[in-house]
Design the sequence.
């Protein structure tokens, strides 16, 4: 598929067919995420793949969302694959304390932006685009802060791993589900793209 077509087709998909995602496609998705940009080649973003029914049920239970009490949740629970995206602030602070970077004080205020979060977002977007290219759909969403420790405990995730979000993936149940774009118009390009000066 042409890249411009991948961009055009990318939507947040909120309901899926029950067909499992083949193992080779799961590997393709995670490898794409691993190839995303990473500050200092820190490679501090990690993925936890859930594609077994017991693990999927465990995730929804740990997040306090085990019932089908709303349309969004009912649709999202149909995803046969969840990829949990984790990042490590400590990994980036340690990497930039190495001799070729030299910030030995490990002070996070040196960073113009917290690149552990930036890199996690880039990895998630790469996975979402790869899913479209593979004929799949995906949706990125967050784990509520009050449930993140329960998810860590259920799946044995170390406490230094920060939850950047989750990508649900599968074969879309329909060509596209209505979401925010159906209720909110796209901003004109001139409101978002400027050349030379802001105003």
Sequence:
């Amino acid at each position: 598929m042409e890249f411009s077509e991948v961009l055009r087709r990318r939507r947040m998909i909120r309901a899926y067919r029950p067909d499992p995602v083949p193992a080779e496609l799961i590997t393709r998705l995670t490898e794409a995420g691993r190839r995303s940009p990473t500050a200092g080649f820190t490679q501090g973003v990690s993925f936890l793949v859930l594609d077994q029914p017991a693990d999927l049920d465990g995730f929804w239970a740990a997040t306090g969302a085990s019932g089908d009490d709303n349309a969004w949740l009912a649709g999202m629970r149909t995803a046969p694959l969840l990829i949990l995206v984790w990042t490590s602030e400590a990994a980036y602070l340690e990497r930039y304390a190495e001799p070729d970077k030299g910030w030995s004080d490990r002070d996070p205020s040196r960073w113009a932006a917290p690149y552990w979060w930036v890199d996690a977002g880039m990895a998630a977007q790469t996975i979402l685009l790869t899913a479209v290219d593979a004929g799949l759909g995906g949706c990125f969403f967050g784990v509520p802060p009050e449930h993140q420790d329960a998810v860590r405990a259920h799946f044995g995730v170390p406490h230094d791993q920060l939850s950047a979000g989750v990508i649900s993936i599968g074969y879309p149940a329909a060509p596209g589900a209505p979401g925010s774009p159906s209720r909110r118009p796209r901003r004109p390009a001139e409101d978002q793209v400027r050349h030379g000066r802001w105003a």
